[in-house]
């Protein structure tokens, strides 16, 4: 009995992640686990710079510029279920389309307070296509006030209301007047 108790104590010392028993996490995580940083609600939140393996979602959008992005979301359209995937070039997006189910391996990161996955130190991340032709998650309908967020607001009330829909498909009913309000942006 003494030997069994000593073995259990030794194995607990090497458990990852360390800490309370509720922090037993699989190697792969969900979008929700990457987005929600409150470890009392989400015990498996990966810290910035941690490797995230096999995060799955449906492609809902692309930004194809010099630094591209893939936007992916879970099919349930629940809060905290959208994320952006930073792509260095366009090789990660070749052969992919809206509605593709993908699995992504990369590093947990943040850019201007927005959660993203990216490759390690300037390298490509791994994007694997699982299936094609999936339905896109439903749009979340709201107002411009519902979705107002800028990096300058930080963790203020605007950030708190927009973060649950970060990286998700949203729609704002019109008519709208759109203009730039950034100094020097033209």
Note down, in words, how this protein is organized:
This protein is of the alpha+beta class. 12% of the residues lie in helices and 28% in strands. The protein has 3 helices and 8 strands. It has helices at 2-13, 31-35, 157-162; strands spanning 51-63, 68-73, 82-87, 101-111, 114-118, 126-131, 140-142, 170-172. The strands form 2 sheets. The chain has a 5-stranded mixed beta barrel. The chain has a two-stranded parallel ribbon with strand order 7-8. The protein is globular, with a radius of gyration of 19 Å. The model is unreliable at 4-17 and 152-161 (pLDDT under 50).
Tell me the number of helical segments per DSSP (H or I, 4 or more residues long).
3
Radius of gyration: 19 Å
Order of helical and strand elements: HHEEEEEEEHE
Total E-strand runs: 8
SSE topology:
Elements: H1 2-13, H2 31-35, E1 51-63, E2 68-73, E3 82-87, E4 101-111, E5 114-118, E6 126-131, E7 140-142, H3 157-162, E8 170-172
Parallel strand pairs: 3-5, 7-8
Antiparallel strand pairs: 1-2, 1-4, 2-3, 4-5, 4-6
């Amino acid at each position: 009995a003494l030997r069994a108790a000593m073995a259990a104590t030794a194995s607990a010392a090497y458990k990852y992640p360390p800490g309370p028993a509720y922090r037993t996490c699989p190697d792969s995580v969900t979008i929700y686990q990457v987005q929600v940083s409150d470890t009392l609600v989400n015990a498996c939140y990966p810290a910035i710079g941690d490797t995230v393996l096999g995060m799955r979602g449906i492609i809902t959008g692309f930004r194809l510029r010099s630094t591209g992005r893939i936007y992916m979301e879970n099919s349930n359209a629940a809060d905290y279920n959208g994320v952006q995937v930073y792509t260095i070039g366009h090789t990660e997006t070749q052969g992919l389309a809206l509605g593709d189910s993908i699995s992504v391996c990369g590093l947990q990161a943040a850019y201007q307070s927005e959660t993203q996955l990216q490759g390690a130190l300037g390298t490509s991340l791994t994007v694997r296509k699982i299936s094609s032709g999936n339905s896109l998650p439903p749009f979340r309908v709201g107002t411009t006030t519902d979705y107002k967020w800028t990096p300058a607001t930080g963790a203020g009330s605007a950030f708190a209301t927009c973060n649950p829909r970060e990286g998700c498909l949203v729609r704002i009913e019109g008519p709208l007047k759109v203009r730039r309000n950034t100094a020097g942006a033209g």
